[in-house]
Amino acid sequence: MNTTSKTKILPAACLVACLALAACGGSEPVAKPFKRSNYNRIVIGNSVEPGTLDPQKSGDLAAGAIIRQMMDGLVGTDGEGKTVPALAEKWESDGDKVWTFHLRDAKWSNGDPITADDFVYSLRRLADPETGAPYAGYLADGKVINAEEVLTGKAKPETLGIRALDKKTLQFTLSMPVPYFPDMLVQPWVYPVHKATVEKYGDKWTQPENYVVSGAYKLKEWRVNSHILLEKNPAYYDKASVSVPEVMFLPAPNEFNRYRAGEADVTYGIPSDQIKTADKEFPGQVRKTTLLCTFYLEPNNKAFPFDNPKVRRALNMLADRTIVTKVSGRGDVPAFQLTPPEMQGITQTAPDWKDWSKEKKTAEAMRLLNEAGFNESNPLTFEVLYSTNETSRKQITALQSIWKTAVPFIQPNLINQEWKTYLDTRQSGNFAIALAGWCSDYNEPSGMLNTFRSNSPNNRFFYHNPVFDQTLDATLAAGATPEERAKLYTEAEAMLQRDSVFIPLYHQVAVQLVKPDIEGFSTHDPLRNYTVKHWSIAPKK
Predict the structure, then answer these.
(1) What predicted TM-score, i.e. pTM, was given to this entire model?
(2) What average pLDDT score do residues 260-267 get?
């Protein structure tokens, strides 16, 4: 049952000051010198329980982190985030429209050979509307022939432009040239699954006793809300390079305390009010990575009151990004557009009101809300959905205070939901506005902007603009230069701003704790697609 959080409103500046004082108060505990007791296992904080471990049905970061350890795709990424061979040894294209991948000799964990037919089955499964995949439209974004028609039920999955030329050769045929197509294939939902296992066990195929893997680790235990334990896969083609025998993932929100207690080696993050403490307590163990991620408020453009662009524009103007980023304490960068500044192939743009004074923004926001019919006698009331997370709670509470202080008749109520329920609520469209975020699936602007396409299953804004869709399509026109694509992407960003589709807040910086003897951990991958097979534990001294 959904419950509304009734939070006492503090002035925004006071709120930030109070949070800062809370972080500084009290004596800081001194950690004991680090001494490893288990050299056979790395324990990783993963923030929340994964929604699923089925690659085609996955879509959240928690699931992806685990699936990447157990499954390989055609390609993978290295510590710099660059695309490298995985199950495909090499590939080539004909005009960026026909892509052919050549598979290496590799086996499933049950001994069956991994073939091109496994990919054909899995990718058809991804696109099939009956699967209910969050990324069902991903192949359509990649312009695979008939993917759009399959997504809308106008064609069968068997008509997809994907075929096995032989057991070791897989070919994709696209409707338009996509020069970055191999980069799109690093994500778990395009990894192969073992057909016989899926068909035999149905939804239970992801249980440890049934799970057949293609990657470095097998699923040994899955105890909900406790841990997920993986063990080295002896059938993996590159098993000699896998150094760590076991990997454990914790869904615990208190991973910082577990790190302090020596029960975790790598955290998903650090509580915002503990970052300075962590830096002092664990010198050299705080790691920061600038990500291709943007967090924002996600208005349901079809639901009252956010079906009115004047309401969306007013709240966007009033959102003080400086306060929101201070609350997180990570060093996040205030955002006024979707694509992060580190993303290649686009020019930064900003809304016309970005540099207005606070007074001018407030006056304009008040005017817009009055025109939309809201005032002291008819206040703007709405519910803001957010997931169970301490940083999210602080950020959304700060925004609540910012809006209320600027315009007293703005009266947001906060709704907190556990992660899986939160995902389901957004998927169903049964919300007014949500605190959400998007991390690009590859380092190219379409990895962010495709989310706003009219047919995208990830378009929880319920935004439909044929001109926006056509602008993105034009980036894939034959002969389009990188400069021409960048100009079109910038136009698409400006369109989102003019339509006030969403409220960008910040581009994320990940802050983690990593034990000093973990080797191979990289802070240079903006996609954060780490694989433990590239890590090792320094030998015992």
Answers:
(1) 0.82
(2) 94
